[in-house]
Design goal:
This protein has helices spanning 3-28, 43-88. By secondary structure, it is an all-alpha fold. The protein has a domain at 10-22 and 45-94.
């Protein structure tokens, strides 16, 4: 397999992984509400919301890592093609 195919395959896997993590987070947070429970009678709803928030908070670092990995791999792809263009124009030596 050539370097280009491997490069694009790694990029695609990272993008799919990032999308899956984003979908998982959105699925977790679909029942999250933006309200404050001031009365003690809403304690069960408050506990549910805190549970949702804690699960979403556990996913956040994975989202950041996946975004950085996709950004780094995108930079690798861009640099590869810029180098390829410069080689074809004989502006740099191989």
């Amino acid at each position: 397999m050539t370097f280009v195919l491997v490069m694009w395959a790694i990029w695609a896997v990272l993008v799919v992984l990032m999308a899956a993590i984003h979908l998982y987070r959105s699925n977790l947070s679909k029942n999250e509400e933006d309200q404050i429970f001031l009365d003690e009678s809403f304690n069960s709803e408050k506990l549910e919301q805190e549970a949702i928030i804690s699960r979403v908070a556990k996913v956040e670092p994975w989202i950041r890592v996946s975004q950085w990995l996709v950004a780094a791999m995108t930079a690798v792809v861009v640099v590869y093609y810029i180098r390829d263009i410069l080689l074809k124009l004989n502006l740099i030596g191989s």
